[in-house]
């Protein structure tokens, strides 16, 4: 699962997503595309998918995605007419996003693109917490304002431990069809500069081309309509770079939901992984045991784990003051369920009825262990 994101609107992110998806499908990969911009869906129009025609359902009540140009697609634009707004509060947005990923009959896929709306709000956080994103691609124009906002979006993905696969500079320059002179309307080289300054890959620059607009409006992506154009060649180069960097970061196999009362859903251990993701989890009378990379083993007492909760009801979000009184936590409290929260945390429910705590991996490592040893 790869998120295509940008902090700023109007940078051509959906156009980039549509063309990359079609290019990877042309290369033989099985590609799905979720239009996660529920308020302003544009993917159906760019891929020639009719709007306002709800998709069919399978006998198991799963949505059958529409296929266009070799790509399986789901979008709010397929459920509503062109001029009908999607008026929804946050909980409904979350519900639709989860439905688009988990209740769609995708079949076997090599990659599922998530075309995100601009910003760093509910949609971005929901996807980062609910699903194991293999990485994110950040799209920006060379304009300084756009790059500054793109940096914020990139930092947001880093905070929730979504690997940054790279930065794409869109609208990087216009080549005059008559004289061949290149005019850099939105400045030059900003995408590469910000990628180098933040230590992430620069995937490539896509030039301005009127044919991109025409192909998007006609529902025929540029990589199909004009495969030999400079812009299409840029898309092909970026697709090649992505296709060799789609492996999920190593570590604990996610997603999972482990019911400690029955033992069901315990995550399979991993042999290797990134330094900040656990390799294995176990639980017994001594507490929660976490095996980290470099053979470090940490065991956290169940009550200490409960007292370390940092949710809004246990700790003041502004001051950081601990709101949870130790005398209100039973001495025999134990975790009852542990589940993955995106790539960066564990959710834990306890026998005292508390279940809103999210424990980031760095926060877990900071909890004083009952027993810690280097093997």
Blueprint of the fold:
Elements (H helix, E strand, L loop, with lengths): L1 E4 L7 H14 L4 E5 L7 H5 L18 E3 L2 E5 L14 H13 L8 E5 L6 H9 L4 E6 L3 H16 L4 E12 L6 E2 L6 H9 L3 E7 L1 H9 L3 H4 L4 H14 L13 E3 L20 E5 L2 E6 L3 E5 L1 H6 L27 E7 L3 E6 L6 E4 H6 L4 E4 L1
Parallel strand pairs: 1-5, 1-6, 2-4, 2-5, 6-7, 7-9
Antiparallel strand pairs: 3-4, 7-8, 10-14, 11-12, 12-13, 13-17, 14-15, 15-16
Report on the structure:
This protein is of the alpha/beta class and 375 residues long. The protein folds into two domains: 2-243, Rossmann fold (3-Layer(aba) Sandwich); 257-374, NE0471 N-terminal domain-like (2-Layer Sandwich). It is built from eleven helices and 17 strands. A hairpin with a 3-residue loop joins strand 12 (287-292) and strand 13. The radius of gyration is 23 Å and the shape is globular. The protein starts with a strand and ends with a strand. The model is unreliable at 370-375 (pLDDT under 50). ATP binds at residues 7-14. One of its GO terms (biological process) is iron-sulfur cluster assembly. Binds and transfers iron-sulfur (Fe-S) clusters to target apoproteins. Can hydrolyze ATP. This is Iron-sulfur cluster carrier protein.
Key terms for this structure?
alpha/beta, NE0471 N-terminal domain-like, four-stranded antiparallel sheet, 17 strands, 28% helix
Largest sheet: 9 strands, mixed
Large-scale geometry: globular
Spans where pLDDT lies below 50 across 5 or more residues: 370-375
Tell me the span between the first and last alpha carbons: 35 Å
Provide mean pLDDT, rounded: 85
Proportion of residues in β-strands: 15-25%
Radius of gyration: 23 Å
Number of domains: 2
The portion of residues assigned to helices is 25-40%
CATH topology of the largest domain: Rossmann fold
String of helices and strands: EHEHEEHEHEHEEHEHHHEEEEHEEEHE
CATH superfamily of the largest domain: P-loop containing nucleotide triphosphate hydrolases
Oligomeric state, counting identical vs distinct chains: single chain
SS-based class:
alpha/beta
| Count of distinct strands | 17
Number of helices: 11
CATH C-level category of the largest domain: Alpha Beta
The CATH architecture of the largest domain can be named as 3-Layer(aba) Sandwich
